[in-house]
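Record type: monomer structure entry
Structure origin: computed from sequence
Chain ID: A
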Amino acid sequence: MAKINSLAYVHPDAKLADDVVVDAFVYIDRDVVIGEGCHIHSHSSVLAGARIGKNNRIYEGAIIAATPQDFRWKGESSLVIIGDNNKIREQVIINRSIHEGGKTVIGSNSFIMAQTHIGHDSEIGDYCVLGNSVKIAGDVKIGNYTILSSHALVHEKCHVGDWVLVKGGCRVNGNVPPFVVMAHNPITYYGVNAFVLKKGNKSDAIIDDIAKCYRHVYQNSASVFNALRRIHEDIDPSTERDAIIDFIEGHGMKLAALPQVDID
């Protein structure tokens, strides 16, 4: 049976696994599911629509499945879905979707630091790190293995690819392709995320090819169309090269830090 402090409130309709720990002054609403091995620390709120997987730690003052901060939301029933093995630190706020039956999604094995806000209908991948006071607007997608350093801000409907590092305080106002480091304001391409890629067992040859791709995209005066053509011609096929091409073809018209973005 779940270990629930006598000073916590758990709605009788909430479903908690037998080994969940709920500390004092926690509020758990109706229509909540919390999986095995979770620990909900004091003064946290888990509100209606939360679906929390296994082995998550939710720290003091966090609010999971907060109602959306969006004028379009008119009371629709929606979800926040959280995977397994996440650490969600103090005063994090995660809003649920504005759409009936919609969802905001947090993957697995991520570390979300204090005072971070994740807006409605956003999707955070696996193995991500969100630094202190990161602000993510609605309808944002953050790829796997991506790091947003403290105080980074991601505008509505932006897509940040896999294996990206966004340096502290950056304002992301467009789509960020995979494997890069972005810095400064206005946001600027800063290089390839080589250190983290090596930690992820990417070979030096693959990292060199990624760098060559982005020299065509960001460090030449060619249009995106011509940059893509040169990538096809100059760089051998690989999973990473193809991921870059696919991302740019899908998001080229709103690619961050790119002064010329025509793709036709």
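Annotation 1: Residues 204-218 form the longest helix (15 residues).
Annotation 2: Residues 260-264 have pLDDT under 50 and may be disordered.
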